[in-house]
Amino acid sequence: MGAGLQVVFGAGPVGASTALHLLDLGHRVRMVSRSGRRPVAFVDKLRSEKESRLELLSGDAANPAELRKASAGASHIYHCLNLSYEDWARGLPPIHAALVSAALEADAVLAVAENLYMYSRGQGRIHEDAIQEPHTRKGALQKALHQKLVEAGASRGLRWTAVRASDFYGPGAIQQSVFGTVRFLEPLYAGRKPGILGDPDRMHSYTYVADYGRALATAAQSPAALGKAWIVPNDRTTSTRELAQLFFEAAGRGRGISPIPRPVLALAGIFVPVIRELGEMLYQKEEDYLVDGSSFKATFGFEPTRLEDGVRTTLAWYLQLHQGSGLIASLQGR
Questions:
Q1: Are 268 and 221 contained in the same domain?
Q2: For residue 219, what are the domain limits?
Q3: Within 10 A of 175 (CB to CB), how many other CB atoms are there?
Q4: What does the mean pLDDT of the chain come to?
Q5: DSSP 8-state secondary structure symbol assigned to residue 183
Q6: Residue 123 lies in a domain
């Protein structure tokens, strides 16, 4: 049985994957989200022994008082929260600051799920020691937020670790993933070509979201990981088109993909703020984007999930999610 209460803020795919791995390790887990509902990544009811160690709590991380209350008794706190792109500049800094304060008050380790936006463009492979000179607003914000962790560790004694991942796919991914339900799986099972941003033939490292959660939990529980940022190891790097083909083959369906031209995206961005905010990050999908997590792999003996296995599990999750919706019956009738 794991010791200490693990408080996971965010019930999206990263938070859910982190919580599931912590439950596997025997910990007590409190998941905090605005709704307090069961994560969509949790399709199956957990075994009763795990259910007895899981608490779902409704709380607003933007409210410092609620955040401190939700963190009470924690030995480890996990920052898996995210906001829509257009809300980043306004919403992320106060949430980040409140989580740092809550961790210090609880004398808890703070483990932060980060992305790779702070790294400079055009470096070949991205690794922990790669140059950080972001040319985008979002990259500059991510770098500034990480620096707050470093400063809190140096001046206030915060015990922290940060784990960074490339674009992810897997159970629970809805809108935020190239291979999520909205952009890929729903069109796939509706007989349409999924729309793909950027150049689908550029090489791109994709992270299986369960590996992201597993790496974050591993780092938080490992004294050797504290005070450092790490990158999640991935399986082999492929093109987006090749990964889409793995989905088609595993699903037994699919008519190819449909690249979305930049002008179409720009037009849609006039009316939809979150689409407008995508523009400055498109370079990641228009150029080769190679991510190196070998340091974490070597330090913690971490083996990433094979793409084929991750794809199969993602499809099984999606189909199970739609049991009783008519989707399964319609597929069986074809």
A1: no
A2: 5-167+206-231
A3: 11
A4: 93
A5: I
A6: yes
